[in-house]
Amino acid sequence: MLPLTISAFLRIPLVCALTAEHIVSDLQVELSSASEVVLTSNNAAYAAGNFTPRYNIAAPPSFSVTVKPSFAVDVQKVVRYVRMHNISFLATGGGHGYSTSLGRLQGAINIDLGAFKTIKIDVAAETMTVGGAVRSDQVARALQAAGMEITLGQCGCIGFPGATLGGGIGPYSGLHGPMSDSLRSVEIVTGNGELLNVSSTQHPDLFYALKGAGFNYGVATSLVYKIFPATNGGQAMLAQMIFPGAVNESVWGLARSFAGSQPKELAISLDARYFATMGGMVIIANFIYAGPQATGLRLIQSFLDLQPANLDISTVAWVDIPSKAFYGGIASGGCSPGAYYVPYTLNVYQVDVPNLVSVFNHLNSTLGANATLQGASIAWVQYSQYGFQLQNDNSSAWPYRDVVAFVQIDGVASDASQLSAVGKFGRKMRDMLQEGSGRDHLHVYVHFAHGDESPTAVYSAAKVAGLQRLKHVYDPSGLFSWYNPVRAT
To answer: Which of 112, 131, 130, 113 is nearest to 121 (CA)?
Structure first.
């Protein structure tokens, strides 16, 4: 297997023997007539094809050819073609994957899955079947109308299948765990060029890997999920407020009081950021409770006793949570293509209040003195472990069922010239937070990863070796080695 592994690491985008024009000509003949194949340098054809734009333009991949296949067999033909000719490629759904690991991919083929957007719901069977590029907000609208629900992320614009393949977390994870725990089967084109139906009874080893590390093994064209009757009639309490920096120690202390005993219906999100108009660092708090508003308010009364500003409490439809959370900030900022976004992240296993206060104070002094960094923030999401514990650790590649909070260091630059400074700052914040994480080594959620982390940090020391062995079975040529890869040994 060694030569194949070396080939994967040394893969050269668009092998010299084939020009981009040649590839376009070949694939136009091979694929169904409804499929689209264009040169990305042909701006008129590319725009007319209505291809999905990329969210993050910091360290982006680049493509010479974009293919929009219409059917799973078209995807299979493309994968077999690139494997035969040793051409690098990337399949995209929502276009939201922002890891800098993708920046290694240049002049490649983009398989845009935009044609795979069907949603079929069977309420009686409590199942949902979706195409490989369905967005989270499309899933939410369809399920709300059917009186059902599932775990969704905080951004409505992300590709739902792509999020699932990395686990997928969100405000209802406390109830239902990661998105991947709800997965029942997947239609996938593997790195071998095979079109497989994968489930707990068909290729169970691959099914295990798809639930947490799935993008390492193939292109998912259709996925079947278990769905759940809507909690609280599809309504939730949404409470939003802003705490001044002076009470940050009290806020972190209250967050600690919920660790290990947080009700499964309650999601706590805290966003520490700099607001010059409010005197420096503040904490924007967002509480989602999947139950009656009165009950939710009793649960968060200790936070309300701190007398926060900008208090906004309402009952909202489950479908509207992503668009209204954080005063609509996630929907506007997190779903606008073309951002210079520099992410860093870590998982924490305790709420170390002194560490968090130290980080907060460092932010206050540093951001106040440096306007370039004032777009940075620390996002803290804390879910009940109940949902994550519904399935055992051996059920999937999802490795982190005992996390207290998932922390993002969100760096945003106004232009490319600021990327280095924002990145240096993000790494420092990650290092500082790691000291209070409760673990000796860095652990990260794959979809929040920067791209400089080791496979062990992303997939866990306990699981990474098994996932690497599966690469030899389902992707021996290393075609799927760009997005936070497992990397076959």
So the answer is: 130
pLDDT digits (tens, 9 = 90+) for 197-239: 999 999 999 999 999 999 999 999 999 999 999 999 999 999 9
Give per-residue pLDDT as tens, 95-153. Answer: 878 899 999 999 999 999 999 999 999 999 999 999 999 999 999 999 999 999 999 99
What is the pTM (predicted TM-score) of this model?
A: 0.93
